[in-house]
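Input for the complex:
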Amino acid sequence: MSRVTDVFSKGKAFIPFITAGDPHLSVTEELIPAMAKAGADLIEIGIPFSDPVAEGIVIQEADARALLAGTTTDKIFESVKRIRMKTSVPLAFMTYLNPIFVYGSERFIKNAAECGIDALIVPDMPFEEKEELKPYCNQYGIDLISLIAPTSKERIKTIAAEAEAFVYCVSSMGVTGVRKEITTNLGDMISLVKETKNIPCAIGFGISTTEQAAEMSRYADGVIVGSAIVKLAARYGADCIEPICSYVREMKAAIS
Amino acid sequence: MSKGRFGQHGGQFVPETLMNAVEELLEAYEKYSHDEAFLSELQTLHETYTGRPSLLYYAEKMTKDLGGAKIYLKREDLNHTGSHKINNALGQVLLAKKMGKTRVIAETGAGQHGVATATAAALMGMECEIYMGEEDTERQALNVFRMELLGAKVHPVTSGTKTLKDAVNETMREWTNRVEDTHYVLGSVMGPHPFPTIVRDFQSIIGKEVRSQILKAEGKLPDLLIACVGGGSNAMGLFYEFLKESSVKMIGCEAAGHGIDTDQHAATISKGTLGIFHGMKSYFCQDEYGQIAPVYSISAGLDYPGIGPEHANLHDSGRAQYVPVTDNEAVEAFEYLSRVEGIIPAIESSHAIAHARKIAPSMGKDEVIVINLSGRGDKDVAAIARYKGVQIYE
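Predicted:
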């Protein structure tokens, strides 16, 4: 059992997302161990990309801030090494295929594994293209997370059959960002996954409130929240650690 | 290996939300591209609405002036809406309609693809929204107004570099919002499979016409084809018919802006590296960490940091050659063709004219060059005036 799978064996998981280097990597290095203490079960670290087409405006702007602050893939690896000295919370990288491919897919995944990353989420790499990274993930022991969306329909079973660690269920159409309502029939999506394979399902995209998180945790094994946290980072800058940790505590309580 | 590869390039690198839509599109295209009724409907539209076949014009004065190869211009500028873009827009909007979609969206750089899509949508009674970089809405204000006249809603894109690349990002985002009733009319031979193939096939009418027109005029195939490349749709449309003809050389002209030794260009083959972006593996202008570079060209239509995957493969195999052409050279060619032949070319196409001026003199008088004149220059007149420091009021 990988460290990521283990997360879901202790009850419903709360999975916050932050963009590395927003507003600065020194903040990221403090924020991650602090979020772990506040109750985060798995933390998604976004490697900023110039053109994040699956993201809404909030995360796109965070990526731009991080890049402007001089954040690079190599500097993020160095930060993660230092973070690993402070916390053993499972960590996932979330980034686009191009920053990985151009860095060198094998070099990227080897470095990620060596600095203590457990999983990898790549939103622009669908099932059909996963051979780009899968062999290296297998070789270096990184879980490659599969995504399913409301449009996946017949694809759900195919994807679920080969999924590992957990399935990232995209709650609604469109890009990341806070939504008032989530109308997709998540129960059906998740049942389809579970019929195929007994694997944890975490729901992301659009979740921001404790009410939504509580509702989502009725169907899912975990709840992923990105934009709502990144908004706090944008609002508080270098002082974002306490507001984000208090948000993490509330959300974790709401789903427990 | 995944679907839709051209050598090592191509593929389907899109979010899972869009995968069902690209699969559905592929299925529909496989059906309709072999459907006689569909093809005949499109052909009738081209004959009665687009104005096809477009002329192949022997540029006698240019030929004499340059003193080398015989030069022919494929007049895609004479198409309805003023460029080759209508070939693909009509094809895709008709396909979308057959698929039961009620709304089309598109990105546009210079505005030509937006105008063509808005036109096709008006003709076929579809709702239409166009995404255009804010900077481009300013340098191509006339085309924005034209799209609005045609009933389209134009969204200025304010993210990133505010140009074509960001317009593609926004259109892809919008497609993930409303994939059920909406088709994304991609404007060039790029993006996830099956778009590079669909756009190429709809544009290949250019090369097919050139083949029969040049055989009639010269009794032989051309020796050299020249076209400009941003994403590369007009070039691919010209080249495709001749790929198996080993005697026919082909050159794509990419935008070198202020020069490929500066950081102000959009010369993807000359300066780019292999990457995965906008749904495809291909060459991109980017940094060592895979961050996509801001690119520059005087031409909004060539101002794109990537190139279609089939072109990337033609470059790898050496089947086609790709050369950089600067803003300056393009502006000179723009003025040259206007003065010598009485034809004002689009600033995009002027990149191809500029390269022909360089190499035609060194070729034999029995050799034949066909240049794709992908669009007309009306939209660029004010920009050229500004470039030359002349104030005019539109």
